[in-house]
Specification:
Length: 458
């Protein structure tokens, strides 16, 4: 694969995921998704104290991400991340209780305060209160008394009461555990001045970044052979291992023999340097037709996904006869991303074969894997290709089917999903993969939901 084409594809792969997944199952940004070290440290500190919460759906929009959690006693916790160009610059816990329209600015301050109170480090709360005219009262003291009770447990609001006086506006926050916290604003409180001073304070602080343990428990078995382990155990037991693709450009002597050997159930046809691996079989409505271009460079071979497509009405027709509905994407954006769909399609369909080593697209997109096998488990990977290389290693005796679906554009962003099935003799694994693109048409989010060991109904 040429470096130029691979780089273009990498740009698009990071492009497929950044706008409004209406119902994702998780949202886990990495360091590069934050506007500053301070914001990243704040996020990690909140995550550490919330480690016992169950992560639910996330809603990603152009300007905000709303992530929902559930406590052990089924209370909902909602966090909002403000972002711009996929950089988080603000974080708060949403207060869902009714608020008067003329108190919305107060509500924003309270939500920011609550988020910082529920962090593992006192620093962020101190920083928020360093230069301010609003007062915090708790029991017979202030911040120190409050932190002594809530350094470890979370403060979860059950009710809010407010009281006007001539000089101030008081909010009484009542927790589910019975504590009362009062925050008092002077009537003359200047929100814009306070926010500017607070923001300036954050630039002077270099907080320690909390370590949030997400590394999974490794099974006691030391066996890592794909042939001897169920897929989930294989993923866990190799979680710390590095997987690399095999460089095969100089290892091939007969390209047709190579392709036929790797795809024994397919029919091979050729038109000049274009090779088509055809198969009429489908599984769950998914196809596995693969089309590639082959180039001979002195003593090596270069194999790339066939880039050809035709735009016919609201459909993108590929060399593999796949027809992708693209009516929900405007023409200007489609010109930027259309060439990536064939590459993604054939790359996934080559999983488990040596052809995958040629078609794999290197990327640096943080990826979350949700595993469904009776209970939900989660693994996080530094890149999408890191996950794919593991599945490729495990599925070497499987027949792979893959299709692209639900390609759409909302608020200027493009998203789509891939449906993947790895079929064995009696069982199969299948996955739904969500891709999201930012405004530069780069993938910045990949979410895979993997279902394992499903019985094939004959």
């Amino acid at each position: 694969m040429s470096n130029k084409f691979a780089n273009k594809l990498k740009v698009s792969l990071v492009a497929l995921l950044a706008f409004s997944f209406v119902c994702l199952t998780a949202f886990q940004p990495s360091r590069q998704n934050f506007s500053s070290r301070y914001e990243y440290a704040l996020y990690r500190s909140w995550q550490r104290k919330a480690a016992h919460l169950e992560m639910l759906s996330a809603q990603i929009k152009p300007e905000v991400v709303v992530q929902k959690f559930r406590t052990a006693d089924s209370k909902l916790v909602e966090v909002q991340y403000d972002w711009e160009e996929q950089r988080i610059y603000g974080q708060k816990e949403v207060i869902s209780l009714p608020f008067p329209a003329n108190m919305q600015q107060h509500k924003v301050i309270l939500e920011n305060f609550l988020y910082r109170l529920n962090c593992a480090q006192k620093l962020f709360l101190q920083n928020m209160l360093q230069k301010t005219e609003f007062k915090v009262k708790y029991k017979q003291g202030g911040l120190d008394s409050l932190w002594s009770d809530f350094a470890e447990p979370r403060f979860e609001i059950q009710t809010i009461k407010w009281q006007h006086s001539q000089d101030s506006l008081k909010f009484q926050l009542n927790s589910f555990s019975g504590q009362q916290l009062t925050i008092e604003f002077p009537i003359s409180f200047q929100f814009s001045v306070y926010l500017d001073e607070w923001k300036e304070q954050t630039t002077k602080v270099v907080p320690e970044i909390e370590t949030v343990t997400t590394t999974p428990q490794i099974p006691t078995t030391q066996e890592t052979s794909p042939a001897k382990l169920p897929l989930v155990e294989f993923l866990y037991s190799t979680y710390q291992n590095q997987f690399r693709r095999e460089l095969m450009n100089n290892k091939l002597t007969d390209i047709e023999h190579f392709l036929v050997t790797e795809f024994p159930k397919h029919r091979l046809t050729r038109q000049e340097n274009n090779y088509y691996l055809e198969n009429d079989a489908e599984f769950l409505g998914l196809g596995n037709f693969v089309a590639v271009q082959v180039k001979r460079n002195n003593d090596s071979w270069d194999i790339e996904a066939s880039p050809y497509y035709n735009l016919i009405g609201d459909y993108l027709k590929l060399s593999s006869h796949d027809s992708l509905e693209i009516g929900l994407v405007d023409k200007a954006a489609l010109k930027q991303v259309a060439g990536y769909f064939p590459q993604l399609l054939y790359m996934h369909r080559s999983l488990g074969t040596k052809l995958f080593n040629f078609l794999l697209i290197p990327d640096e997109v943080p990826t979350t894997l949700l595993i469904h096998n009776g209970k939900r488990q989660r693994l996080d990977f530094a890149s999408y290709d890191d996950l794919l290389l593991r599945l490729h290693s495990y599925w070497k005796k499987r027949e792979i089917f893959f299709s692209l679906q639900d390609i759409r554009q909302m608020n200027g962003f493009i998203e789509f999903k891939g449906m993947l099935a790895a079929v064995g003799k009696d069982k199969y694994d299948w996955a739904e993969i969500r891709f999201h693109l930012n405004k530069e048409y780069k993938i910045d989010l990949v979410m895979m939901s993997l279902h394992v060991d499903k019985k094939i109904e004959r």
